[in-house]
From TrEMBL, chain B:
It comes from Aristaeella hokkaidonensis. It comes from the Bacteria. The lineage of its organism: Bacteria, Bacillati, Bacillota, Clostridia, Eubacteriales. This is DUF1667 domain-containing protein.
């Protein structure tokens, strides 16, 4: 039984879903709907009250809520319906979406195209294999951020942060400003995966030590966290005996990576990449399931929301083209990760592509004064130099349509050429 | 005297080398890749400033209000600004962009709401 028929259904009203919906409406789709499980649109930006968003897109520095509001306002201007407090339970291969909400109960929506924009989740404690007791006081950094910024309470007083991703750094500052003592930020790698600006303005400004090549090796506390042990690690990330430091703390925040949230995608038969944990897509952001598109952090984890918006706008345009029956030929290049490159998106590119394609990837390590090279067989088709590549910053190289003409092979390889 | 600082204006985070006189006065900067970097370097070596973002409780509302300083404030005033915010009482409704405190601590910065609370 179907309750409603629409052209495009967007799952998620964060920056990705909003940008995709705006693009689809601007491309002429009138029958579309955005749904979100939270009670308001805006996604994770609602709790990111710090500034630094929108420099690329709006040429000014906004806080998360302000950035989200611009898209919410634009969506309202275009009359795009957004249904909140609505949880999608499943998406089928042929675009039948089952969702549940307090207003409509269970409803089934048949869409001509579906845009997956569910964002990502934080890697939880269970995935880190950290030893110690199962006491209260251990949160993911994003959960703590939600408590402090949206729910209005502090999760603890003496804090250690494991992982130096941007959310962890931002929360080090946030907890400090709200009166907590942040004892240290502990990072297992020899470098931080956060932005340099955040190391300066979130840690150095408040004299919070960043312990590189260290990890948490014990967690103590029966009911509430009482203390943790931090040890140095060797090159193989194994703790070095004798280097233990003890911290008395009541709170441990985990900022150890983000994972695209793809349960719904898997249910729809969407194939995922092991490198990105997101869907395998072509340059139009269409997955292997025709008419299902993916964009934003559900596709691959971005550093900047500006990039999420740009990518998702393209996905929205593609979904509109799909609905309006503008199909292109199904002959593809496969894009492979070469030396020093991980998780290139898109993984497939139409051979007859007629607009530039951004190849986005994560460098596998820190490389200085090198170049990213795209090759087809033995032919180099594109090259871009860079002073530094780090895994903390997504790298990008743009292929022009003319780069992809007159090539015999079907495989494009992206690699980093080191001197 | 040379000093290496990291620009915080944008996500690139340029590493810049600043030359200071013996008395600590700013002389020149290299390594910045845009004009904003030069402005930041001079400011950072004379009077470092930051935008502050925080939340303040709203009476009768579970969700706090997110706010920011309209312009950067001197770094040494951050604690005092936070203290000031802790003592601020407000009532809904609040519109995004509404000024909550004019010229906080007699600086040029206003405390501005960054979201709407109906």
């Amino acid at each position: 039984m179907t309750d409603r028929n629409i052209d495009i259904l967007v799952i998620g009203a964060g920056p990705a879903g909003l940008a995709a919906a705006i693009a689809a409406r601007e491309a002429g789709i009138t029958s579309l709907l955005v749904i979100d499980r939270e009670k308001e649109p805006g996604g994770i930006l609602r709790q990111c009250i710090h500034n630094g968003f929108g420099l690329h897109r709006f040429k000014e520095e906004l806080t998360g809520p302000e950035y989200a509001q611009r898209d919410i306002d634009r969506a309202a201007e275009l009359g795009i319906p957004i249904e909140c407090s609505t949880m999608v339970l499943s998406v089928s291969r042929d675009h039948l979406v089952t969702c549940v909400s307090p207003v409509y109960g269970i409803q089934r929506i048949q869409a001509k195209a579906v845009i997956l924009a569910m964002g990502c989740r934080e890697r939880p404690r269970g995935a880190l294999c950290t030893p110690g007791t199962r006491c209260a006081g251990i949160y993911s950094a994003g959960t703590a951020q939600r408590f402090v910024n949206l729910e209005g309470f502090m999760p603890g007083k003496r804090v250690v942060i494991l992982g130096s991703g941007d959310i962890g750094l931002i929360m080090a500052r946030r907890m400090t400003l709200q009166g907590a003592k942040v004892l240290a930020c502990v990072e297992i790698m020899p470098y931080s995966s956060g932005l340099n600006r955040n190391i300066v303005q979130c840690l150095q400004d408040y004299n919070i030590p960043l312990l590189l090549s260290h990890t948490v090796t014990d967690i103590r506390g029966l009911h509430r966290l009482e203390g943790i042990t931090v040890s140095e690690v060797d090159q193989n990330r194994k703790p070095v005996p004798g280097t233990e430091k003890h911290f008395a703390c009541d709170t441990l925040l985990l900022s150890c990576g983000l994972i695209p949230e793809n349960e719904l995608s898997l249910g729809a038969g969407v194939s995922l990449s092991s490198a990105t944990s997101g869907a395998i897509v072509d340059e139009t952001f269409e997955t292997n399931v025709p008419g299902i598109f993916a964009c934003g952090n559900v596709l691959h984890v971005h550093d900047l929301v500006d990039h999420v918006s740009a990518e998702s706008y393209k996905a929205g345009c593609s979904a509109a083209s799909f609905v309006l029956n503008r199909h292109s030929e199904d002959s593809y290049f496969s894009v492979m990760d070469g030396d020093g490159v991980r998780g290139t998106v898109p993984q497939r590119i139409h051979r007859n592509v007629d607009s530039p394609v951004d190849l986005m990837f994560r460098p596998a390590g820190v490389y200085r004064n090198c170049a990213v090279v795209v090759e087809c067989g033995n032919i180099e088709i594109c090259r871009k130099k860079a002073q530094i590549f780090t895994p903390g910053e997504m790298a990008l190289i743009t292929l022009k349509p003319e780069h992809l003409r007159n090539l015999d092979e079907n495989i494009l390889t992206v690699r980093i050429e080191r001197n | 005297m040379d000093q290496v600082i990291t620009c915080i204006n944008c996500p690139v985070g340029c590493r810049m080398t600043v030359s200071l006189s013996d008395t600590g006065e700013f002389l020149s900067v290299t390594g910045n890749t845009c004009p904003r970097g030069a402005v930041y370097a001079r400011q950072e070596c004379t009077l470092p400033k930051r935008i502050i973002t925080a939340v303040i409780p709203v009476e009768g509302c579970r969700m706090p209000l997110s706010v920011k300083t309209s312009v950067p404030v001197p770094k040494q005033l951050i604690r005092e600004v936070m203290h000031e915010l802790g003592n601020t009482q407000i009532h809904a409704p609040v519109r995004a962009g509404q000024i909550i405190i004019h010229h906080v601590l007699n600086t040029e910065a206003d405390i501005v709401a960054t979201r709407t609370l109906p």
